[in-house]
Amino acid sequence: MRNINDLIQNPVFFTPFFGALFLTGAAAWQHGRAGRARGWTPAAFVLYAAVLLVTSAANVPLDDALAATADPVRARAAFEVPWVFWNDVRTVLTVAAFGCLLGAFATRRTGPGASARHLDYESR
After folding, report:
1. What DSSP character marks residue 55?
2. Phi, psi of 114 (to 5 degrees)
3. N or C terminus of the chain with fewer C-beta within 10 Å?
4. What is the C-alpha radius of gyration for the chain, rounded to an integer number of angstroms?
5. Residue pLDDT, tens place only, 49-107
């Protein structure tokens, strides 16, 4: 875990981690008047924001405590159960956010306000 914590702090990880929130926020802003899709994208944004909150409030402090300990074997008992729990919470939130984005995509393409060009293409 210590090695992962040292290696994970790089642009390759941070770009998608923070990019998901920023791109979802941009999609929510664009879907502001997009009929049924407008409910899905803000929900995804809130869920992704919750992922960042859980990460910064729960997982990062646990990672920092593990890095600071002199006896990692003994610290594992105090670290592992809460870290896995909060990681599972992050996983569920991320999957739910992605599901909301899929819902926005599906309703945007087929719901009220779907572009005439899109509908014309499907009728061919």
Report:
1. I
2. -60, 140
3. C
4. 20
5. 999 999 999 999 998 888 888 887 888 888 899 999 999 999 999 999 999 999 988 88
pLDDT tens for each residue of 19-30: 999 999 888 887
Cα distances from 99 to residues 63, 77, 96, 104, 105, in angstroms, run: 29, 34, 5, 9, 10
The residues near 105 (Cβ < 8 Å, ≥ 6 apart) are: 37
Burial 65-90 (b: 16+ CB within 10 A, else e): ebeeeeeeeebeeebeeebeebeebb
Distance CA 79, CA 20 (A): 27
Ordered DSSP codes for 73-116: HHHHHHHHHHHHHHHHHHHHHHHHHHHHHHHHHHHHHHSTT--H
Q: From CA 18, how far away is CA 49, in angstroms rounded?
A: 9
Residue 33 DSSP code: G
Pair of tokens at residue 82: 């809460």
